[in-house]
Automatic annotation (TrEMBL):
<dbReference type="Pfam" id="PF16868">
    <property type="entry name" value="NMT1_3"/>
</dbReference>
<protein>
    <recommendedName>
        <fullName>TRAP transporter solute receptor, TAXI family</fullName>
    </recommendedName>
</protein>
<dbReference type="InterPro" id="IPR011852">
    <property type="entry name" value="TRAP_TAXI"/>
</dbReference>
Length: 325
């Protein structure tokens, strides 16, 4: 009887207690291992392990479109996503056409601008978007944010895949093919600098093709989420600034996480900005003051709570946002 009582006690005894709002597992859907998404995501995972005691990891993916699928299906808690892909998911357009509109998407913060970099080498003779006609062009992984950008930019210049020989390649895969002479140019949409392009610049005279003038004007008119930005001279081997299109990245958060969990995650990241900034030059664009820059979806209430505490958003604005949701 005594033994039975012990067994019964063990069965009804409470399991290990967890602090309110704890996040035991955090999977961060990033991008290819050679891109800034992955490098910054790895730094975030380390912060969550150190600050929250979470089992946090970064996952290599095909980036934006795949990441939205991962976060809405419960297979990731955070996801790096470009603003255009986020808007298309909410509107049910582009690669999300025919799917349900994902109005439940929220962001923890804006990140930093991604620059559309059409990279080639001097030996190809490619100097403009129009010069891509008939060429072998890496357009990113299939259904990635890079591929979306490639299609939009070709369209703005009156072109489609019928006008090029498209290759679905990751950053590193496209650069390897350029080195081997099997690909002429590649779309690389990322923060600056991109390590794959830097690697190419060690052995080749890199050329960044500009996106400017009437072509950019048509792009902006049809896709207003693009901005005109400059890739500074010396970023790679180019001497002068190169005008191109840019778009803001966002860190989306799983709808399965509650306000307390997201608050703690936001606090952990922004109280370790030095660590985050050291992970990649592009990460220096992540600041409290720009948390809602280029927002394509609402900021999660848990994140807003932290920003309100820090004085970067008013309590009234935070309340109005919560009510509208």
């Amino acid at each position: 009887m005594a033994a039975a009582a012990l067994v019964l006690t063990a069965c009804i005894a409470p399991g290990p207690s967890h602090e309110r709002g704890s996040v035991e597992f955090i999977t961060i859907a990033a991008g290819g291992t050679s891109g800034p998404y992955y490098q910054i995501g790895a730094s975030m995972a380390q912060i969550f392990r150190n600050e929250l005691g979470s089992d946090a990891s970064v996952q290599a993916t095909g980036a934006s479109v795949e990441n939205i699928s991962l976060i809405t299906s419960g297979r990731a808690e955070l996801a790096f996503v470009m603003g255009d892909a986020t808007r298309q998911a909410v509107e049910g357009t582009g690669p999300f056409e025919g799917r349900r509109q994902l109005s439940e998407l929220t962001a923890l913060t804006a990140l930093y601008p991604n620059y559309v970099q059409i990279v080639t080498t001097a030996r190809t003779g490619i100097r403009s978007v129009e010069d891509l006609r008939g060429k072998r062009v890496g357009v990113g992984d299939k259904n990635s944010g890079v591929e979306l950008n490639a299609q939009m930019i070709l369209d703005a210049y009156g072109m489609t895949y019928d006008d090029i020989q498209e290759d679905f390649l990751s950053y590193s895969g496209a650069i390897d093919q350029i080195k081997n002479g099997q690909t002429d140019a590649a779309f690389v949409t990322s923060g600056l600098p991109n390590s794959s392009i830097m690697d190419l610049a060690t052995t080749e005279d890199v050329v960044i093709v500009p996106i400017e003038g009437e072509g950019f004007a048509r792009l902006k008119e049809k896709y207003p989420f693009f901005d005109q930005s400059a890739i500074p001279g010396g970023t790679y081997s180019q001497a002068e600034d190169v005008l191109t299109a840019s778009i803001m990245n966002q860190l989306l958060v799983s709808p399965d996480l509650d306000e307390e969990q997201v608050y703690k995650m936001t606090k952990a990241l922004f109280e370790n900005l030095d660590t985050l900034h050291a992970s990649h030059k592009a990460a220096t664009g992540i600041t409290l003051d720009s948390f809602d820059e280029g927002a394509a979806v609402p900021i999660h209430p848990g994140a807003l709570r932290y920003y309100t505490e820090q004085g970067v958003v008013s309590k009234d604005a935070s309340k109005d946002t919560a009510q509208s949701e």
